[in-house]
Amino acid sequence: MKNLRKLSRENLKTVKGGITEECARAQASAIACYSTMAACQANAPSDPDFGDLCRHLCNRYCY
Length: 63
Hints:
Layout: H1 9-12, H2 21-29, E1 33-34, H3 37-43, E2 55-57, E3 60-62
Antiparallel strand pairs: 1-3, 2-3
């Protein structure tokens, strides 16, 4: 804990990570999300009327 320093407004601009509210809402409305397209396709229900259900939503693949 000694290495923590106060974050100034300038330092906050360089902090990366997390997702925006829009991404969080989109992922929350999805049935399931996966980190890779292969995992999403393997677990998504196959429906010939809809084709590929997996969509890229903010660094995740969801259906």
